[in-house]
Amino acid sequence: MERPVIVVHGGAWHIPAPLREAFHEGCRQAAGAGWAVLLSGGTALDAVEVAVRVLEDNPVYDAGRGSHSNSKGEVELDAFIMDGRTLELGAVAAVKRVKNPITLARRIMESNEHAFVVGDGAEVWAQTLGIPLCDPAELLGQPESTVAMPEDSWMPPGMQLPADTVGAVALDLAGNLAVGTSTGGTPNKRPGRVGDTPLVGCGAYADNAAGAAAATGWGERLMRLVLSKSACDLLAQGWTPQAAAEHLVAQLERRVAGYGGMIIVDRHGQVGLAHNTPHLSFAVIRVGEEMLSGTEVPKGLLGGAG
Ligand code: GLY
After folding, report:
1. pLDDT (0 to 100) of residue 306
2. Residues designated catalytic
3. pTM of the model
4. Sign of CA dihedral 220, 25, 57, 114
5. Which of 67, 256, 68 is nearest to 158 (CA)?
């Protein structure tokens, strides 16, 4: 049993070469912040919230600050958090004026009243919960009209531009699991469009009896396979996280021509990472080991499918 463990990702897609170091470093910082929480005896829930906040605050990623805008030039953010101990969850979608949607998702979860709140209603509730609203301009990344795909761009057939969703999974010293995700969604999306990220079981799932999983990539395809709950079901059947991650990412491509990646930690502290995109920015911290991190996952990094 390895405890604690934290794994974060900053999105699975083609990361243009000049941006790779920033994507990599941002994941290291987020994992380090979550790790500090875990080492001091904090909960997995606290750790994933802190790690995702660091990623949301980093304008490199399509979450929180720096998010892609929709076709009206507005930012609409989605986030999700889940406690594997209680199976409680909180989610928000299409919020325009919340700097850290992961924290609003958590506060909604803890309200014990509703689980998933969207749009204006979520923003009104944020204020009631003591979360101030920000100027939407603070959240906007590059105008979409200036998002040019680089020469060496990779794009599967039928795909739009990337969404660099962020996510974190953690196992704490007490053996509790949690997951958090956050995204600005796809560039130029229709107003009101929501992807997999805040949908329970699709973008994320956590259950102390199995593990915690987060998915990233092309939301419209990812949600068809309910990837994160599927990962936890495989873990409960005895699959290793690496085998589950590789299997589900292969299914994503084979069954629904989808592209993306997954991060998983099981209740024993074993880790799985897989993607069928050129890149997945990630960082993993486990007891007694150097941080593992990068912008692609080499075959065999975590022992293969086993
Ligand atoms: N995976 C993020 C999204 O499609 O919105």
Report:
1. 43
2. 165
3. 0.94
4. positive
5. 256
Which tokens sit at 215? 């998915």
Q: DSSP assignment, residue 224?
A: G
* Atom of ligand 1 at shortest range from CA of 193: 5
42-78 CB burial, b ≥16 within 10 A, e <16: bbbbbbbbbbbbbbbbbbbbbbbbbbbbbeeeebbbb
**Residue 277 Cβ < 6 Å to ligand 1:** no
Tokens in use for 111?
């309200």
Cα end-to-end span (Å), the chain: 18
Atom of ligand 1 nearest to the CA of 222: 1
Nearest to 216 by CA among 236, 195, 239, 247: 195
Q: How far is the CA of 287 from the centre of ligand 1 (A)?
A: 31
In angstroms, rounded to a whole number, what is the distance separating the alpha carbons of residues 91 and 118?
8
Q: Evaluate: CB of 186 within 6 angstroms of ligand 1.
A: yes
Is the distance from the beta carbon of residue 195 to the nearest atom of ligand 1 less than 6 Å? yes
Sign of CA dihedral 223, 225, 228, 229: positive
Q: Residue 172 is encoded by which pair of tokens?
A: 């704490």
The 10s digit of each residue's pLDDT in 147-201 is 444 444 556 655 545 567 999 999 999 999 999 999 999 888 999 999 999 999 9
Ligand 1 pocket, 90 CB below 6 A? no
The DSSP letter of residue 223 is G
Q: How far is the centre of ligand 1, averaged over its atoms, from the C-alpha of 260 (Å)? A: 10
What is the Cα Rg of the chain in Å?
17
CB 287 within 8 A of CB 251: no
**CATH number for the domain formed by residue range(s) 5-294:** 3.60.20.30
Residue that the structure tokens 């989610």 belong to: 91
